[in-house]
Amino acid sequence: MTDGAVTVLIPTLLRRFLDGRSEVPVAVSGPTTVEHLLNTVGDGRPLLSQRIRDETGSLRRYVNIYVDGEDVRGLDLLDTPVNPGATVMIIQSVAGG
Amino acid sequence: MPFFLEAPSILTNPDFIGAVMSTPGTSTTLLAIGTKKGLWLATSNDRQSWTLSEPKFPMQEVPAIGIDTRGGRTRILVGSMSWHWGPCIVHSDDLGATWTEPQEGGIRFDAGDDAALARVWQIQPDAENRPGVVWAGCEPISVWKSTDGGEHFELNRGLWDHPHRSEWGAGFGGAAAHTVLPSPADDTVHAAMSTGGVYRSLDGGSSWEPRNSGISAYFLPDPQPEFGQCVHKVARDAENPDRLYAQNHHGVYVSEDSGDTWQSIADGLPSDFGFVMLSHPRRGGTAWVIPLKADGERFPPDGKLAVHRTDDAGTTWRQLDHGLPPLEYNAVLRDAACVDTAEPAGVYFGTRGGSVYASADEGATFTEVASHLPDVLTVRADVVAG
Predict the structure, then answer these.
(1) Residue-wise burial string across B136-169, b where 16 or more C-beta atoms lie within 10 A, e elsewhere
(2) Domain extent listing, chain A
(3) Interface contact B111, partner A, CB < 8 A
(4) Of the CATH numbers 3.30.465.10, 3.30.590.10, 3.40.1110.10, 3.10.20.30, which one belongs to the domain with range A4-92?
(5) Rounded CA gap, B32 and B27, in Å?
């Protein structure tokens, strides 16, 4: 197991749920998953969590998550593995009119 | 579903800041306008001249608003929907200066329900004698009840577990319970859904039965089914709680027996199609509709936007269009119309073209409150403390 941290980047519109922070370091003791990271960042912050995933746990349609630049929708969604040292970006998609 | 008592989250996003102004000692009417891209609040001391706020909740749909003035407090409840971040329900007790979204509150399905809230379609404060009770109708088709003023809602299991649920369908706008009407007289509650029709509970929401006898569903193989009608809006008569008015997907009806049977009251209207149904806040027999030409031509008939009022429970109708534009092809959606509780009653509506109109004389004359807003999804108005 490798101790380390994953950096989770927070989009501007959700930073008010994290005291304005643009990124959150999450300590990990080895490879983890996107779901674990979302659970950790959202722990005690239900209003943040429900903006990223709905009640069924699904990632909202127009929220994107990239692990070191790779879209999790092209990987294993919330089961996508994340290694220590990785950067996970949460960002809204370009949508709307 | 348990209630939680965590401290509420005060939303400090600048988008949410900015109260409307009311003048002390005067009667101020608040008109809340929910659109496809945000909320506007308009205020007036005479219901003729209006002051419009800056947009709140920009880029969020606002399909549901409730103004709860019971107990001398004005609470604005807003159901909004961000295409990115999902739906939520918030409230303001200071006329829109700040908005609160309770932690672990709002409307949320339990994990075992295998469902996710898509949109709040209706926020309905209950009667004066049931303080704190607020009902909500939502997509997917569901009815919710709050007993703390709209901060936490509990799913109505009687309707959610109804054996008909798998057969209810989706209208063009989605599958939703868009009308919830608790009776002030007893434990009767009516809910209406598109598509599914009208359902009635006689026990405060524990159990529900369809009540659509007489309402046509011309678009189904059986045009007189027990349920499955595409009801667009239902309103309860102010003096007779057993009298209901319904605007359907083609068809305007009245029921004199709490929904057991329905009779057409479309004679005298230019069309039986439309979305709006309003009833007077105090006077029995008075209701308003805003007809559209037809399912396949959802425009005001001949481009003449007009409100039609009955004062005899649908026996006769009177066209009201003074102050409305000579040519208008935008439709008025089911909740984009409302009445206030003033005397005489105010009538308000907004179009999909972003024009909003107000009448301080029960529809006899209209003035323009705003124009060129995004599509108006809902309006709600009431007299608030000045």
Answers:
(1) bbbbbbbbbbbbebbbbbebbebbbebebeeebe
(2) 4-92
(3) yes
(4) 3.10.20.30
(5) 16
* The two structure tokens encoding residue B123: 């926020």
DSSP string, B184-252: SSSS-EEEEEETBEEEEESSTTSS-EE--TT---TTSSSSS-SS-B-EEEEEE-SS-TT-EEEEESS-E
What is the residue type of B30?
L
Any B CB within 8 A of A56 CB: yes
- What average pLDDT does chain B have? 93
Question: How high is the ipTM of this complex?
Answer: 0.93
Taking only the tens place, the pLDDT of each residue in B1-41 is 322 223 344 444 434 445 555 555 578 999 999 999 999 99
Residue A13 contacts B, CB cutoff 8 Å? yes
- Strand, helix or coil for residue B340: coil
Residue B112 in contact with partner chain A when CB distance is under 8 A: no
* Domains of chain B, start order: 9-384 (2.130.10.10)
Query: Which residues are bridge partners to B122 per DSSP?
Result: B137
CA nearest neighbour of B183 among B197, B162, B200: B200
Chain B residues with CB inside 8 Å of A92's CB?
A: 84-85
**Buried/exposed code over B109-124 (b: 16+ C-beta within 10 A; e: otherwise):** beeebebbbbbbbbbb
Looking at beta carbons, which residues of chain B come within 8 Å of A93? 84
Q: Which of A51, A55, A58 sits opposite B85 (nearest CB)?
A: A51
- Cβ–Cβ under 8 Å, residues B292 and B273: yes
Q: Which residues of A touch B5 (CB under 8 A)?
A: none
Chain B: nearest CA to A57, how far in angstroms?
A: 8
Give tens-digit pLDDT for B176-220: 999 999 999 999 999 999 989 999 999 999 999 999 999 998 888
